[in-house]
Structure formats: C-alpha cells, structure tokens
Amino acid sequence: MNFKESLIKHFKFTEEEWQLSQPFFHSEELTAKQYFLEAGKVSDKIAVVESGLLRTFFFNENGDEITTQFFVPGTLVISSASFNRQIPAKENIITIEPSKLIVFTHKNMQELIKAVPVWQQIPLAASEFKNRQKEKRIIELQTLSAKERYVKFLEKYPQVCRSATVGQIASYLGIDIATLSRIRSKI
Questions:
Q1: Is residue 180 a part of any domain in this protein?
Q2: What is the pLDDT of residue 126?
Q3: Residue whose C-alpha is closest to residue 112's, from 9, 6, 7
Q4: In the predicted structure, residue 99 carries a pLDDT above the cut 90
Q5: Which tens digits make up the pLDDT trace of 151-175?
Q6: Which domain holds residue 75?
Q7: Has residue 178 been placed in a domain?
Q8: What pTM was estimated for this model as a whole?
C-alpha cells in the first residue's frame, strides 16, 4: 500500500485533501550508510519509508552500537522527542541500504496541520502506534526466550534479516552475537 492509499484507508483522506497536502512534502533519496539524523542534532524532519531500510541506534558506555528500531517501507521515521520538542536527539538514524523517503520538515508539518485539518489526527495516531510498539517490544524482551524473539523477528522483518548485520540484529534482540549465531545455525 503506498502513502496515498494508506492515508485514505486509515484517515479517510479525500482527493482534495491529498492534493492540498502534496506541496508540504517531498521525496528524498539516501544512499546506504547515510544519516537521516545524527545524535546531538535537532530533528528538523520526519519521513515515511517508500523503499529501503533504516535503523535507529545509540552508543552505550562501552562505545558499542545498540540498535533500537528498524524502519521498513511504510513506516514513519522519527525521533519523537527531538522532532516534537525541537531538542537535540539522543539517537542516530541511518540507512542500511539505499532508501527513498517521503519527507516532511518540521515547519511544513506545522503549516500542513493548519492547512489540512485531517493531518491533526496523524501525529497522535503515530505516537499511539509507536507507544504500542514500544510496549510490545518491552514485554517480548522480558518474556520471550532469545530463540522466540529471533523467530518472531524473522517473521516480522524478513527484509531486515537480508540486509542488516548479525550484530545489528543481535543488538536489537538484546542478545550477543554468539548466541544469535547458535540460534541461526539451528533454525
């Protein structure tokens, strides 16, 4: 389902609302390993992934990368706190493979919400969806075995399994690389 179809299905966009919205966003293509957002900078844009793959990560106290989220086609790329409150981001968002995005700047999003009232629903819906995802992820990290988490991950993110490194996947799943390698050899 493309971006327009998704807006029509989930938010009952009319053709007129779609036409009024188009001037407020643009397409952007990023190469592999290109930053969408760097930690310490204020997020001035959000995006919907049309194609490609991105991930969110930060560095722990040992300097290890900790992957916290993957963005596959159809998902919203956002550093919520940074974008919404216009404060420096704590995380990095980077492409894993070349990606095509539909991008909204912070300024354009504010203007769009005023110009096309149906857009007022979208930030709240996106925030609620992200919160449900986080809750589900926390529960899975606490209740599922490493193997169960990996099997669910394979089902949910086949594209990520093909493109991300073993270290990125292990980090996301909260397990070490050796454990993930053992699990993978048995599946």
A1: no
A2: 82
A3: 7
A4: yes
A5: 999 999 999 999 999 999 999 999 9
A6: 3-119
A7: no
A8: 0.91
